[in-house]
Structures are given as structure tokens and as C-alpha cells.
Write a structure and sequence with these properties.
This protein is of the alpha+beta class. It has 13 helices and 16 strands. Bound molecules: 4-amino-1,4-dioxobutan-2-aminium adenosine-5'-monophosphate and magnesium ion.
Length: about 475
């Protein structure tokens, strides 16, 4: 009977006493002239399985070719391990080398490469403990997002990535075109002739799936969309990517309080899911990078988020006596230093700020009776600042149109959106969670480039 390959995660849980087949990449090899100990990892867990080889049983040249980074296939007996750190190990009987990794050239030799260096070799960094852990947690969080919404009866709506509208009105979009940039067709008055372009109009990559998400909520009730979004902002910070993933639920008949309730429950669920399902990876990150990580995660699942208005927040900041780099006054768009002051110093817990000045928020937010503020909400987190942005939406056709006109917005590509307010309009709300911001919090990594496999940032689109 041929042996079935088992993954390292499974082998480490097995009772000793049977013959096993393992395949994976060599993390380290050490030993003496009689025996070699190989630490083998196949990505299924942060833990390695130890392979013990009595050198007299193996070809010398073959053994020499097994170095850090090489890929091997091992058949042997699973036995109780006498060494510390593991319960079982493989006593090797046969080894086949699938692929060598020249020690002169393979970059992942010594431990403790800098995160900056690892970014330059993003094609190999998933083979490090750190990135293995981060990417497994990333997967677990994506799965938990779908589970959370599925269990609540939300419908996963696939909103388009190519769009002719600008959801946030921010104008920082990547254009999508098949026009020949060396020879752009022009109209009679000298403007680009987009009618000659692929879609017959000017199109871009989406900054948010929300507007189409609202159409979903106005028909299916509760929806969420979860996919990549794109922003051409020239923000070279540890919290911004040009391509990032966003989760956006949108719910009919939810008012702002229901929206806040859901946002808080959602984040707590995700953090708890990580604690319950990613224990080994979190322990590794906690020990290596951030000794307070696990405590901080537990803390968030247990504390109530503090809710207050933007106006109250501004007052606290102004009275704080703190020296901020950016000045604080009513109407200012808060910087992450302000957000973090409220979260980390003042309240010492996550904060939900509501009722922002209308001029710093998007056109679709529900207008308050004061004529100055809108029913927006931002969830602010320790070390991150804004992790969620959302709002109750303006359901009134007249009020929405007034705002659109006030902002001199072009409605040509927005009629479909405006139709939701013309036909069976209803109160509704939603929010967007930045998936990589969540991962920054859950993994304790300090740069957003290190929680996505292949980061896209200004002047950088490698791999
Ligand atoms: O606050 P934002 O811009 O909100 C929206 O896009 C709404 N349409 C969401 C909605 O109501 N459905 O973005 C939402 C979140 C932010 O809170 C932040 O976590 C993340 O997306 N985000 C970014 N993450 C990484 N890199 C960037 N450049 C980001 N911009 C926003
Ligand atoms: Mg925002």
C-alpha cells in the first residue's frame, strides 16, 4: 500500500508508532558526523516537525544538498521525541530531494531579517515564521468574515471592480483604459474622446463597493461585499495601501445605532475567532514582536466601545493640553494622532465617533437636523486609528439631491443610485472595515505592507 502524505500539522498531533510520509521545506539542519536533525515545515502550522537521519543510512552527497530552503520528501517512522520542544519526530528511512536551495544564493539564511529586507523578497517571505503566521491569520479572518455574515443571513453581493462612478467623491482613482496613451483620440474641442474607449466612457477601479451595496440592501435586505478596492492617494504611511481589501455590509432598516451595534459585534467576533483558532500563530507573534498582543486582543473582546460625537471628541482634544502636530478645531478632519489620543490616552479603549461635520464626509450620509453634521461613524482602534468608516445613509430623495447639487456633482453616472431614493426608499446603514487595518490590529504588525502578501504602494508594484 502506498503511504499517503500527511501535513505537518496533522503529523504533530498523531500518536507515535506508524510509518509516515512528509513533504516540506527545510528550515534548518544541524547535527554531527553521525546524525542530522532537520526541521521541516510545510506551511500548515508555525511548528516544524523534526526529521532525524542516521547518516550511515543515506548518500553523503544527497545529505549535503539538504540545506535551508531545500524541498524534500521523507518516509520514516513517527516516534516519540526525546528532545525538548516536540512530542513526536520522524526517524527517516528514505529521503528524496525535490529541489535544492544553494546556500550561497538563497536569501533566507540567518534568522532575524529586517521587515524592510523581507519586503524586497516578498516572493520568499511566506517561508518565514512571521509571514507564515500572518498569512494563516489573514486566511482565518477572511473565513471568519464570511462565517459571521452567513450565520446572520447576510447575502454576499459581488460588486464591480470597474466603475464609472466615484463612490467617495475623493477623486483618488486609478483610471482603466484601453486607449493608446501615445495617441489619445480627442473630441472636436480637444478633450479625450472616451466614447472611443473600451467601455465607451471614462472608467476607474472602484474605491468602494458601497453604492452598489446599497442597491443590494434595497432588495435583498442585508448584504455584504468583500473584495479589493483601489485608491490612488499618494499616502506613504504604515496604514495606507493603494490596493486593499474592504468588507462592506449594508443593511435595510438599520439606523445609526444598529449600525454601531453590528460594527462592534463584528470586530469582537473576528478578534475572538483569531484567539480561538490561531493560538499558535498568535503566541509566536506575541513572543517575537509584541508582548502585549494577546492581552490587547482579549481586552477588546471584553470591553464596551466608547461612543461619543465628533463635537464631544474635539472638545476633549482641545482641553487635553496635548501638543499635536496638526491643530484641532471644529471642522477639521481628524488625523490619526488625534484618534489615537482619544483611544489610547483618554478612554483607553476602542471609540466610535459619530455625527461628523458634513463637509469632511461623503455626500450620501444622512443629514442631521442641525444642518451642519451627518450621521457618520468611525470606529477608532488602539495603534491603528480609523479601522471602520460608515454611516446611516440619506434616504430622502430631496435631501440627497440638495447635497449632490451643493457639491456640484455630475449625476450622469449616478442615476441608478439616485433611483433607490425614488422607488421604495428606506432607512438604511452600512460601514466599511479595512481588512488590512484589522490584520494590523490582530497580528500586532506595525506596517500595513506586512499583512498583505504583495503590497501595492506609491512607486511600488513588485511581484
Ligand atoms: O472610510 P472609508 O473611506 O469608507 C468607505 O469607503 C465607505 N464607502 C465604507 C462604507 O460605508 N461602506 O474606508 C473604509 C475603511 C477605513 O476605515 C479604513 O479601515 C480602510 O477602509 N481604508 C484603507 N485601508 C488601507 N489603505 C487605504 N488607503 C485605506 N483607505 C481606507
Ligand atoms: Mg473614512
Amino acid at each position: 500500500m502506498t503511504l499517503k502524505r500527511e501535513r505537518v500539522s496533522e503529523l504533530l498531533k498523531k500518536v507515535p508508532g506508524s510509518e509516515v510520509l512528509a513533504k516540506g521545506w527545510v528550515r534548518t539542519k544541524r547535527g554531527n558526523k553521525n546524525i542530522a536533525f532537520i526541521a521541516l515545515n510545510d506551511g500548515s502550522t508555525i511548528n516544524n516537525i523534526q526529521v532525524v537521519c542516521e547518516l550511515k543510512n543515506f548518500d553523503e552527497e544527497m545529505m549535503k544538498s539538504i540545506t535551508t530552503g531545500a524541498c524534500i520528501k521523507v518516509t520514516g517512522d513517527l516516534v516519540e521525541s526525546l528532545g525538548s520542544g516536540q512530542k513526536v519526530e520522524i526517524s527517516a528511512k528514505e529521503i528524496e530531494v525535490y529541489g535544492t536551495a544553494d546556500p550561497e544564493k538563497y536569501p533566507l539564511q540567518k534568522k532575524g531579517h529586517s521587515m524592510e529586507f523581507l519586503r524586497e523578497i516578498a516572493h520568499l517571505r511566506p517561508r518565514t515564521n512571521t509571514f507564515g503566521a500572518v498569512l494563516r491569520i489573514r486566511h482565518a479572518m477572511a473565513f471568519a468574515i464570511h462565517k459571521f455574515f452567513n450565520d446572520k443571513g447576510f447575502c454576499y453581493l459581488h460588486t464591480p471592480l470597474i466603475t464609472a462612478s466615484d463612490a467617495e467623491g475623493a477623486g483618488a482613482m486609478f483610471q482603466v483604459t484601453t486607449l493608446d496613451l501615445q495617441n489619445v483620440p480627442k473630441t472636436e474641442n480637444g478633450e479625450v474622446d472616451y466614447s472611443a474607449d473600451f467601455f465607451g466612457k471614462r472608467t476607474s477601479l472602484t474605491v468602494s463597493g458601497q453604492l452598489e451595496g446599497e442597491l443590494g440592501a434595497m432588495s435583498l435586505g442585508n448584504i455584504y461585499t468583500f473584495g479589493p478596492t483601489f485608491r490612488a492617494e499618494n499616502s506613504n504611511t504604515p496604514r495606507h495601501l493603494a490596493e486593499f481589501w474592504m468588507v462592506e455590509p449594508e443593511m435595510a432598516f438599520y439606523e445609526i445605532e444598529d449600525n454601531m451595534e453590528l460594527a462592534e459585534e463584528f470586530i469582537k467576533y473576528l478578534v475572538k475567532y483569531a484567539l480561538d483558532n490561531c493560538a499558535d500563530d498568535l503566541k509566536f507573534l506575541n513572543d517575537m514582536f509584541d508582548k502585549e498582543l494577546i492581552e490587547r486582543l482579549k481586552g477588546v473582546t471584553e470591553t464596551e466601545f466608547k461612543r461619543l460625537t465628533y463635537t464631544e471628541g474635539i472638545k476633549i482634544l482641545q482641553e487635553s493640553g496635548e501638543k499635536f502636530e496638526y491643530p484641532v478645531y471644529w471642522g477639521v478632519d481628524l488625523q490619526s494622532e488625534h484618534e489615537r489620543y482619544l483611544v489610547e490616552k483618554h478612554f483607553r479603549r476602542p471609540v466610535i465617533l459619530t455625527d461628523y461635520p458634513k463637509d469632511i464626509k461623503a455626500f450620501y450620509m444622512k443629514q442631521n437636523d442641525d444642518g451642519k453634521t451627518v450621521r457618520g461613524m468611525d470606529v477608532l482602534f488602539p495603534k491603528i486609528g480609523e479601522i471602520i468608516g460608515g454611516s446611516e445613509r440619506e434616504a430622502s430623495y430631496e435631501k440627497l439631491m440638495n447635497r449632490i447639487n451643493e457639491l456640484h456633482m455630475d449625476t450622469t453616472n449616478l442615476q441608478w443610485y439616485i433611483d433607490t431614493r425614488r422607488f421604495g426608499t428606506a432607512p438604511h446603514s452600512g460601514f466599511g472595515l479595512g481588512f488590512e487595518r484589522l490584520l494590523l490590529f490582530v497580528t500586532g504588525m506595525s506596517n500595513i505592507r506586512d499583512v498583505i502578501p504583495f503590497p501595492r504602494t506609491p512607486k511600488s508594484a513588485e511581484f
